[in-house]
Design brief:
The chain is mainly alpha-helical and about 140 residues long. It has one domain (about 5-135): Four Helix Bundle (Hemerythrin (Met), subunit A) (Up-down Bundle), CATH 1.20.120. It is built from 7 helices and 2 strands; from the N terminus they run αβααβαααα. The protein is globular, with a radius of gyration of 15 Å. The model has no long low-confidence stretch (mean pLDDT about 90).
Length: about 140
């Protein structure tokens, strides 16, 4: 299934059109679930739980993008595409954008200051994203 807005991103070089791969999508959703479970482990550091929730959200968002027949190597673009792949309003996917910026500060500058409330919010959002992507793809 192609979407005009995503086809425009292919022409701009921000996405690649690629046939849907059901096995890959299933693996991404399974990985998202595992990472979200890890993010909810109380014994992990707040930073570890944040990164787990972020990675869970990314895997689920990528699964939705792949279901539509597209791929991106840019994590930010994967989150932006949620408006088209799952019909998410900007207020929802922009929380993921904020998490992406925090993740980049941690990965590239060694700086991650995160609140427990942000981890909880990100876990809830990742949970909703996994559920929406699972419904889209017909995953159990």
């Amino acid at each position: 299934m192609t979407l005009p807005a995503l086809d425009n991103l292919v022409r701009a070089g921000q996405l690649k059109a690629e046939p849907r791969n059901a096995a890959e999508i299933a693996r991404l959703l399974a990985m998202a679930g595992t990472r979200l479970d890890d993010a909810r482990l109380p014994g992990l550091s707040v930073e570890g739980r944040f990164l787990g929730a972020y990675n869970a959200a990314h895997a689920a968002a990528l699964a939705a993008l792949r279901w539509h027949g597209y791929r991106s190597e840019n994590r930010y673009t994967v989150f932006q595409c949620l408006a088209h792949t799952l019909g998410w309003p900007p207020a929802r996917w922009r929380i993921l954008d904020s998490a992406h910026r925090k993740r980049n500060l941690a990965e590239y500058e060694g700086s991650l200051e995160i609140e427990e409330s942000a981890v909880a919010e990100l876990c809830d959002l990742a949970d909703a994203l996994i559920a929406d992507a699972s419904r889209l793809t017909g995953a159990p």
